[in-house]
User: Fold Probable dual-specificity RNA methyltransferase RlmN from Pseudozobellia thermophila.
Amino acid sequence: METKKKDIRALTKEQLRDFFVAHGDKAFRGNQVYEWLWQKSAHSFEGMTNLSKATREMLEANFVINHIRVDQMQRSSDGTIKNAVRLHDGLVVESVLIPTSSRTTACVSSQVGCSLDCRFCATARLKRMRNLNPDEIYDQVVAIDNESRLYFDRPLSNIVFMGMGEPLMNYNNVLKAIEKITSPEGLAMSPKRITVSTSGVPKMIRKMADDGVKFKLAVSLHSAIDEIRTTIMPFNATFTLADLREALQYWYDKTKSRITYEYVVWKGINDTQKDVDALVRFCRFAPSKVNLIEYNPIDDGEFLQAPDSAIDRYVDTLERNGITVTVRRSRGKDIDAACGQLANKQ
Ligand code: SAH
Assistant:
């Protein structure tokens, strides 16, 4: 009878060390394997050249190394790169490399599909198929780091969890992936260069604050008026703005880390002075910054980017009230790599 082999990368370093001790070897062997798996991104046991043949065969008999594969890489005219990433079970997620003159940012996925129902987002139409494992998130970052070195001659500098999925609905795995990314045994990146973007799950925002995480938080707000937010992000009926604000207040009190709000201004939806004033009031309770992001159409024209005059109104009012605001242009639109466009078109 064939027993199902375990994914070796689901094991912690301690568990690997224990495994070797249980098999009559030295615990130190676990460190060596761990290094192969996480620092050297080994794809096979055979390639672990400082282990004896017998040890490699023993690992082979007990484990598999599940690895992602970049199936397709597309490059945009603006330098943005999109990877279609195939997982060990055949499902596909996407991740994006966004280069600017001063940094390269990886935009990674946390779930296959998404369980939320934001009406303006292409990923929402896929439904949630499964959560990504920590190693699957980590591998996307490694793949992009390699591409950054290859095409732009510099390592990856920042990571945003703004790809497919809601990171706080897969919190434990996202946290484990970030631990690997920031650990000296992984990529040794500073958590200050990592941003987790959420549509706003109050309970999980509190948990993050309690866990004392060091990465940054971004919230996809899009409206500070409940009726409007519920129309475009229906889960807002359950996680209301009042709950969200309380959770964010808690986050700020505990972490003293500024909150970024992501916000798209749509024609006829949230483009009036009343909408701007509500946003200003929402921003008051803690130091925050607003990123006005450009809308990336996903098809039927139900949502339309508001004209520049509406954006100017937001910028003027926010600035007058002392709130930092940036207007961000989209990148990678020609290859469907921009925010909200990730939906496995191939
Ligand atoms: N679920 C997380 C992260 C993924 S979405 C979140 O909601 O934050 C990443 C960002 O893209 C969010 O701010 C989201 O609101 C925004 N977004 C989604 N669809 C978009 C679209 N069509 N155009 C522009 N931004 C979009």
